[in-house]
Amino acid sequence: MVAGKVDTGVKDDARSKNALKKEAKDAAKLAKKQAAQEAQGKPDEADSAEDHSKGKYGKLEMNASQNKVQRELKRVSDIDTSFANKSVLIRARLHTSRAKGKQCFVVFRQGRSTIQGILTVGDIVSKQMLKFVANISKESIVDVIGKIQNVPNPIESCTQSDVELVCEEVWIVSEAEPRLPLLIDDASRPDSETGEDGLSKVNQETKLDNRFLDLRTPTNQAIYRVEAAVCRFFREALDKQGFVEIHTPKIIPAASEGGANVFKVSYFKTSAYLAQSPQLYKQMAIASDFEKVYTVGAVFRAEDSNTHRHLTEFVGLDLEMSFDSHYHEVMDTIGNMFTEIFKGLKNNYTKEIEQVRKQFPSEEFAFLEPPLKLQFPQAVKMLRDVGIEMGDEDDLSTPNEKLLGRLVKAKYGTDFYMLDKYPLAVRPFYTMPDPKDPKYSNSYDMFMRGEEILSGAQRIHDSAFLTERAKHHGIDLETIKSYIDAFKYGCPPHAGGGIGMERVTMLYLGLDNIRKTSMFPRDPKRLTP
Amino acid sequence: MYRINRSYDIPAQMELPKSMYSVRPVNGQTAGLYSSVNGNSEVTTRKGTLSESNRNSVKDSPKPNSPLDSKSVGKRKRSGSKSPPRNKSPVVKRELHKVGGSKMTNENVNNSFDDAARDAIIGKLEARQKVVIDKLLHLRDILNNLGATAVTASSGGSSAKSEVTSSVEVVVNADPANPPLSVVFLTKLLRDTYGSAAVSLQSYRHSSCQNSLTVNSNLFNKPLDADSKASKTIKVSVIWKRVEDGEPELIVQPSVQAPVTGEANIARYLSRLLPSVYPIHYDTLSWDDIIRVDGALEKAASGVKNLNDLEQQLQNNQPFLCGEATIADFVTFSAVAAYLQKNRKGTEKHPRVAQWLGSCQNLGGFRL
């Protein structure tokens, strides 16, 4: 069987060179195969007469739940030497197959586990059956019954390396088309192994266009399980503190964060907008006496930036909390929540993290307990000490943030830290100013690996003061009337913040592009799949 | 670079490269870096540095035929832990060394330097040298005054609260199985001197740390006062993580400085954050005390095998190892505490050690 070609869509010279080489190789292979077949010509026809394995292989009828069968399917990941000489039934994908003369080696894949299967022409397996199995297209789903046997030398290329499946029956459950847009092996290859010498990789655009194939790689299986865990630990950490999960509307009448970055949708006779953040509704929930709330939902930002860390739609994990006397209570809660997420991932998801590191090498994520808290003036001093010029009230530019991340890592050894007391001038109008120094505000950012993941602050909960600050920022009061109204009938002092789930996962695993952690990413250039 | 034993003299007519150090010939000989007129066997020919012989000769008794004697410039600051300034060998400002370094490359360039230019450069060097010598004299005056006041300053917390001169933030990485208790002592003294609104100690546990802390973590958590308005503060952060060889290290600014390793050196560094007249300050120690303190620090660094030596040392009935409390007590306390962790027998057979432990804990204001 000729291996399916990777259709990478010739994008640049290096790629076409690779493709050309591959074509040459495939042509040579094809010529050889034809020559071999001619040599064997006669025997092929002769054997069609007697097939002693009839009834042990074939293509199953499409499953429309015709009958209920009670049978025991084993998980490939469970199969080990304790199954020796036992008969098992598995349902897996045909990952690769290689036929040589009277033997055929097949690799079956289920999720992240692979096991080698072997067919030898003999009493159980006929030549026709071998030919049939060798011709099953890659990625087809098959049912296999066979006996497990131990192998003397471990099979390096399979996860279940100390056993092998001697196939007795092979049935196709769902056949795949023979020409695949991309090969799973190519898509899971680390960059270090690809290059001019034949081993190819798949570029990101192709991966994203064929997401349903790309997601099958063991790396992606691991990444999205880690992402699910981030969400889970977020919820667990906050539930323990007495938070209530709420769900806020995404179709709103006016832009919440202001400005041009909002999607407009037609709403019956008028138009509406897609929410840029659940900010307004979180605060309304606080004013409605829910005291501590969090919400997990989609966030839409119509920013025309094609960067490695921006999406137009992402999942936001937002929280808001009323506090007793000082907003540091909230900041400490958020910091502890992060520590719980990091510890949970470190202790429970080591296998997944290792799997991701195999394809995308990175350094282990380091953090301190309790989390490190720095003040903005301290950060400015650290930057100035290495020669960066900036004013006391300047915002941190992205390169400065990255540099600061490296400085903090060198000094304190942590990839996660919190920066408190940002200058008031660079924060939104609803941020509470610092009572002791009007230049600064009660607001904070949190960083992972030098990139910002959370922006939060103590909010202004007094409608008169809020009106004053809005006027100061030149905002039209009519557009935020409902926002200010929420605070007219008593509201406790509160603070909060929001994080991007994809960004946290990306930075925890040390990946370089947010599209790797978004299952079906949306950016200014991508609307499908 | 190369150590060449010259068995011959450089003939007077030979043109040596015209470096900044070919100053006016002394004793009628053209003297340069490569001159071996001293007959010293150690003549290094490493470009851009003082030859070993000349450096040594400057420090010790000046040899009469050493040409660079009185006009010595560009002396290297001794590497390693800072030693107390001695009147004999001068402490050098860093920029002078840099200046010397950059100037030395001229020796390769331009043998056709005319005399006027050369004299101008020499003149500038002399001016700089004068500045250095003035600063040295000033330092000597300070030292003389210190000698007078050090004895009179009271130990253990003067009532006058001093001001922190400039903000300091240091990080100490240490193994929790071997906590550096000297940091606890010194932080307490710093808090007594500058006030608890200006000095804080906080500990963190790094994610890579496997061991657990052998002492109460409250010892290492002394936050700033809640209403602190101090503009200049001293913040010490202790991070429990895996460290090389189990040695704690102190980090100030990793982009420009190497870390300070070893508890003894950390104690010296922290003691220097105290006001310079404070008796615990490492540089206020007299010569004899330095020898004793350094000796005790080295012993502590190599680990405590048993308490017999210590018992012996405390025979002279002084309350602390070297008379009054010094950093030697703090660091030795740390080592002894680690030893006692493993040897439950404790100090039954060593009454003096037990007594000394008690007086240390009283000074530090805590109980283990």
TrEMBL record, chain A:
GO CC term, one of those recorded: cytosol
Enzyme class: ligase
GO terms classed as biological process: aspartyl-tRNA aminoacylation
One GO molecular-function entry: aspartate-tRNA ligase activity
Annotated region described as Disordered, given as residue ranges: 1-64
Domain of life: Eukaryota
Protein name (record): Aspartate--tRNA ligase, cytoplasmic
Organism: Allacma fusca
UniProtKB/TrEMBL annotation, chain B:
Superkingdom of the organism of origin: Eukaryota
Principal place of residence: cytoplasm
Membrane-spanning parts: none
Biased composition (Low complexity): 81-90
Polar residues: compositionally biased ranges: 29-56
Keyword Transport: no
Domain AIMP2 thioredoxin-like per the UniProt entry, residue ranges: 169-260
Signal sequence annotation: none
Subcellular location as annotated: Cytoplasm
One annotated Gene Ontology cellular component of this protein: aminoacyl-tRNA synthetase multienzyme complex
Keyword annotations: Cytoplasm, Protein biosynthesis
Keyword Cell membrane among record annotations: no
GO BP annotations, alphabetical order: translation
Ranges for region Disordered: 29-107
InterPro entries to which the protein is assigned, alphabetical: AIMP2, AIMP2_thioredoxin
UniProt-recorded name of the protein: AIMP2 thioredoxin-like domain-containing protein
